Amino acid sequence: MEGEKENVANGGKVKLNVKDKKILFELDKNCRQTNAQIAKVVGLSKEGVAYRIDKLEEQGVITQYQAVVNLSKLGVIAFKIYLSFQYLTSDKLKSIIEKLKSKKEAKWIVSTKGSWDMIITLETDSLQKVDRLKDEIFSLFGKHIREKTLTIHIGAENYSRNYLSNLNNRQSREIYGEYKKIEIDDIDLRIIGKLSENARRSIVDLAEELKTTPRIVDYRIKQLIKNKIITGFKIALGYDKLGIQFYKVFLSLDNPKVEEIKKLIGYFESNKNIIHHVKVLGNWDLEPEFEVYSEQEFDAILQDIKDKFSDVIKKAEIITISKEHKFVYF
Fold it and tell me: Kind and range of the H or E element at 138?
C-alpha cells in the first residue's frame, strides 16, 4: 500500500512500519483528526490512511477511541480499590468481572501481577457514595479478598505516546486537578458519555443519536474543549499485539516539599514512556504508569527516577498490568 509493506502479524504480534507508527501517534495526539488531516502529516493519501486505520483496528492494535475528561470540573470523585485474592477460581473471577463491567461507576478494571491482583477505578459525586460503592465491590468478592486498600485521586495527567515517534512536543492532558465544578446540562453530559465510548464518532452520528442538530453538537464539543472539561482525544492500544509491557509504580515519598513533587511530576511529563500519573491520598503518594517494550527498558527508567529523586523516594512498589477489562475516562 502506497509503496510500503503492510503491517504483518508474527506469532500474535503485529509488526508496524514507520507510517503505521506515525498514524498511531497522530491518533493518540487527537483521534478526532480526519483522515485527510492525518494524511498531510504522515505523507499518505486519505484513502491510504483509512485503509491502515481499518487494518490496525482489525488486528486489535487500536482497541478504543477515548475522550480524556477533566473529572474535577464535573464534580466527580475518582478513587481506586486494590485487591489481592484467595480461594478464587478463574471461572468465579470471570463472573465477578462481568458484574463489575456492568457497573456504570466502574471506569477502569485491570488484572495485575505483583502485590495486587486487581485494580478498580470508580467515579461518583460524594464521599458517602464512595463508602457505599466500596462496600458493594467488597461484597462482590466476599471471602475471596485476602488484602484490600483504597486511594482517592487528587491529581492526574495523561501524556501523549511520544515513544511512537521521534517528536519532542509532549502533550499533557489533565484528568484531575484543582476542584472547580462547572455546571453543564444533560446534552453536554450525554455528548461526553458518547465520546467516552467512541471519541471518533462523527458530529452527524452524534446529533442523530442525541436527537439534535450537527451545529449544536459541534458548538457544544468546542465549548467543552474551551472550558477544559474535555482535555483531549486519544486511543487505547492492544498491548499484547505490539509487545508492549504496561507497568504501574506506587511511589511513597518522605515528606517532600511542594517544589520537589513538582520536579518529580515534571520528570513524568518529560519521559516519553510514562503515559499517566496519578497523585493520591492513601498508602502511597504517586502512581506513574509506563509503556515499554522490555523489562530492561522499564528497569532503566525506574532506576533513573530513583537516582534523580533519591532524597524523596522512600519506597517504590511495582506491578504489571496483565489485562484491561474496561477503560473509559467518564
Answer: helix 127-141
Residues 115 and 247 grouped into a single domain: yes
**pLDDT per position as a tens digit, 92-107:** 999 999 999 999 999 9
* Residue tagged 470508580 (cell numbers): 122
At 166, the amino acid letter reads: N
For residues 84 and 75, give the distance between their C-alpha atoms in angstroms, rounded to a whole number.
30
Do residues 249 and 199 share a domain? no
- Given a contact cutoff of 8 angstroms between Cβ atoms, the answer to whether 242 and 61 are in contact is yes
DSSP, res 305: H
Domain span at residue 189 reads 183-226
Cell output for 139: 461484597
So what's the pLDDT on residue 321? 97
- Let me know if residue 12 belongs to a domain: yes
Nearest by Cα to 275 from 295, 298, 303: 298
Give pLDDT tens digits for 41-87. Answer: 999 999 999 999 999 999 999 999 999 999 999 999 999 999 999 99
- Tell me the C-alpha distance between 14 and 5, whole Å: 13
What DSSP assignment string belongs to 52-67?
HHHHHHHTTSEEEEEE
Q: Which pLDDT score is estimated for 166?
A: 74
Q: CA-CA distance, 192 to 329, in Å (whole number)?
A: 10
| Neighbouring residues of 9: CB distance < 8 A, sequence distance ≥ 6 | 15, 59, 241
Within a 13 Å sphere around the CA of 18, how many CA atoms are in the beta-carbon half? 8
CATH number, domain at 215?
A: 1.10.10.10
